[in-house]
Amino acid sequence: SQPKPTRRGALIVVEGLDRAGKSSQCEMLREYILKQGNAVKYIRFPDRTTPIGQLIDNYLRGSANQDDHSIHLLFSANRWEVAKSIEQDIASGITVIVDRYSYSGAVYSAAKANPTLSLEWAWQPELGLPRPDICLFLSISAQEAAKRGGYGTERYENETMQTRVRELFRTLFDRQEDIAIIDAGESLDEVSKDIQKAVSDCIARLDSIGPLRVLG
Ligand code: 2DT
Ligand code: MG
């Protein structure tokens, strides 16, 4: 009989506000997918290790300033520089878990309330990037976020930005497909179970979805 063609991997994005539990949940999801016998890779944006990523890191730590539009395009370029390698991994059967993606990209920039940097403007450079098969949004209330500890010292880690970011995520997710809103206010294990359910459903649909699509 013919050898079975490689089943492509899934592109899974995890989004959420600071302290929603993204990193822990990404790690638990990685272990879950591995245990099921599937190849899996974890990546995160911004990827601070590349030359563009270092500019972003300097900006976030406050040691460099950048025009709002300019830094926005650098965040997007930081995704474009790995787009090909994501496509190759997915094609070779590896499921890729991505910690923050285009959604954070558009929302954080638009939250600055710069009159020439709308959510619509901010989304444009994302068009054509690999499209997630599912985007899991870890949703926590402002109160729950506050309970989980104080803000860090990086740019954006303050109440005003977080409130705007939360609202803009909602606006963006009304317009985008394949978004799963996960109540991230529960325990690690409960949240993890909800994520596993959503991801299993997504992986079961992969054959009918067909090849990896692009963001539109
Ligand atoms: P971390 O806390 O996850 O390291 O993110 N951000 C992120 C943007 O403004 N644009 C983007 O495209 C991405 C991926 C969100 C650092 C901060 O960078 C913000 C928080
Ligand atoms: Mg952070």
Q: Could you characterize the architecture of this molecule?
A:
It is an enzyme of class 2 (transferase). This is Thymidylate kinase. GO terms for molecular function: ATP binding; dTMP kinase activity; nucleoside diphosphate kinase activity. By secondary structure, the protein is an alpha/beta fold. It has a single domain (11-209), classed as 3-Layer(aba) Sandwich (Rossmann fold), CATH 3.40.50.300. 50% of the residues lie in helices and 12% in strands. It is built from eight helices and five strands. The chain has a five-stranded parallel sheet, with helices on both faces. Helix 4 packs across helix 7. The protein is globular. The mean pLDDT is 95. It binds 3'-deoxythymidine-5'-monophosphate and magnesium ion (MG). Magnesium ion binds at residues 18, 154.
Compact description:
This protein has helices at 22-35, 51-61, 68-91, 102-110, 119-123, 142-147, 159-175, 188-209; strands spanning 11-16, 40-44, 95-99, 134-139, 179-183. It is an alpha/beta fold. A five-stranded parallel beta sheet has the order 2-3-1-4-5, sandwiched between helices.
